[in-house]
Amino acid sequence: MERQSDGTCIKKGPWTAEEDEILMNYVKKYGPRGWSSIRSMGLLPRTGKSCRLRWVNKLRPNLKTGCKFSAEEERAVIELQAEFGNKWAKIARHLPGRTDNDVKNFWSARRKRLDRISQTQENKGKDPVPHEMPMVEVLPANFVQGSSSHEDQFKRSLFMEEFQMVSLPDLIKPDLLNLETGLPVLDIEPIRMIPLDLPILPECQDLALESFDYNCVGMFNNQSESKPKSLTKIPSAGSHAELGNKENDAAPDCFFDEFPTDMFDYLEPLPSSLEW
DNA sequence: AATGCGAACAACCGCCTGCAT
DNA sequence: GATGCAGGCGGTTGTTCGCAT
User: Fold this and answer.
1) How distant is C1' of C8 from CA of A52, in Å?
2) Cα–Cα dist A106/A207, whole Å
3) Confidence class for position A5, pLDDT limits 50, 70, 90
4) CA A149 – C1' C19 distance (Å)?
5) Does A37 have pLDDT greater than 70?
6) Which domains does chain A have, with CATH numbers?
7) Packing angle, helices A100-124 and A71-84, rounded to 10
8) Which helix (H) or strand (E) holds A53?
């Protein structure tokens, strides 16, 4: 408890279940506003700011608490950060169930990771770019998935033609690791990565490539068997507003765990599809 | 089992903005 | 227009947890 000049006390630190309940009841009754009156009414010895923050970050309905960022959410954050900068609240508005605090924490964790990688590489006096990065396939942004209309099939066939194999080191610019200026700025045309040799998702069966050039993937993870067993696909990031609204996200958390954790960190902005 | 370390999360602080007076 | 206040936001710090050694 911290005593104020007016004699009242302000409580700081972790919230208790009882406090949460009181706050929830207040919001139910009065709505998420007038935070300062919570204290003036004697309901809680917390500042209005603290109450608001607790509501926004923990008590608000439909929050994805305790749930790691999906691959799609990670991508969206990276794209939106490139577009808006550190406007976490703005970015969070595109990610249903995520708060600005979530996004901020995610980003700073990512940044620390990058810092450490950079530091490690500098200490080793090596090229900061890892040489054994897996090859990924970069798909055009206008790819339409999950529909079987003639138009969509046509678009899909176009997409297959545009489909490119790109090795990650080819996408890397040395200055992307310049941590002085922050993180790599991804000029994001939404892109999709298809890691090879991962379990294929049922909804993606029809995306398997019949004419796939398996010779292209021999270097992938130095695996002896270069032919991919399957293809896995991350759903389109085209509409960020839809993120997280799907019941079964096609990119479960465990899926992303299969990736090198810093995979996105090494991506260079792609030329627009017009230049392909 | 103890310890160290990194990641994730929770909460606070200070600044800024918008609005009412 | 000046002032005060509430709320919003970004940065930062503290705490907890899980994992490796």
Assistant:
1) 10
2) 31
3) low
4) 48
5) yes
6) 2-59 (1.10.10.60), 71-275 (no CATH)
7) 90
8) helix A48-54
